Amino acid sequence: MQIKRFEATDMKEAMRQVKEALGPEAILLSTKTVRKPAGPSRIPRPPLVEVVAASEHPAAERAKPGRKISPLWLPKVELKKDPPAPLEDPLLHRLLSAGISPDFISTLAKEFLEWRRDPRREGTPESSLSYLRWKLMEAVEVTGPEAGGGRIWAFIGPTGVGKTTTLAKLATHFRLRLNQNIALVTIDTYRIGAIDQLGTYARILQLPLEVAAGPEEFKEILERNRDRDLVLVDTAGRNPYS
After folding, report:
1. What tens digit of pLDDT does each residue of 26-45 get?
2. Which residue in 1, 59, 131, 194 has its CB near the most CB atoms, within 10 A?
3. pTM (2 decimals)?
4. DSSP of 64-127
């Protein structure tokens, strides 16, 4: 596999360089914005787009000349236009911008291209999105809800990913299906309505809900609930990049 790094003033120009150097089926490995140090005049230079891309076929192999045939002898065939290469697909760009591993995107791009080339596929944006969702779900290893482990489960992640909703679903499972003695705890005192949202779930399931405003209070709450089968802890959203 041939891997090259490109720099350009914008993404469109970077994509043009990649296609010219590695071909239309090149696979995008990473993208980022880079800033060069100021020159002798101390005038700040504009940021550049840096793209790392790869191709399975070396440049020499792609440029290998073939036997020339007179156009008069070429059969008339209807050529089927290939779908856009993975490099140009906005869905894969969205996965990259979401912070998913470039190595995983590289592997997924190859499978995605083969999937779209299948004449049995619809090739619509909706079907492409469904396919990528399915591949992402396949790649995530999860355990069953009855998995062993600690007695205290904390739900951690960025804002809006579904921590509180997931906590409520698991609380329902353990309370109603397994009849376990559980408690709900929240340390999310920042988001407006966070306590009320979890409080609604607690009332429906008839579970105790405790709010910890600081580390010491959190320790006291855990001590009070040490005899519970399970303690589910909701947390405030955190930025994974800070």
Report:
1. 776 677 787 777 666 666 67
2. 194
3. 0.47
4. -------GGGS----PPPPPPPGGG-HHHHHHHHTT--HHHHHHHHHHHHHHHH-TTS---HHH
Of 89, 104, 91, residue with least CA distance to 30: 104
Residue pair 164/198 in contact by the 8 Å Cβ criterion: yes
Tokens of 41: 């005049």
Lowest mean pLDDT among 2-11, 75-84, 210-219: 75-84
- Is 159 within a domain? yes
Residue 38, C-beta contacts closer than 8 angstroms, at least 6 positions apart = 44, 45
pLDDT in tens, 153-204: 999 888 888 899 899 999 998 988 889 999 999 998 877 677 888 888 899 8
One-letter identity of residue 135: K
The answer to the question of residue 76 being in a domain is no
- Assess if residue 53 is contained within a domain: yes
Give, in order, the Cα–Cα distances in Å from 163 to each of 96, 140, 176, 227.
Answer: 23, 17, 20, 24
**97 shares its domain with 19:** yes
Is the confidence at residue 70, as pLDDT, over 70? no
Q: Mean pLDDT, to the nearest integer, of 207-224?
A: 92
CATH number (domain holding residue 166):
3.40.50.300
Query: Hunting for tokens 């920042």 — which residue is that?
Result: 190
191/106 same-domain check:
no
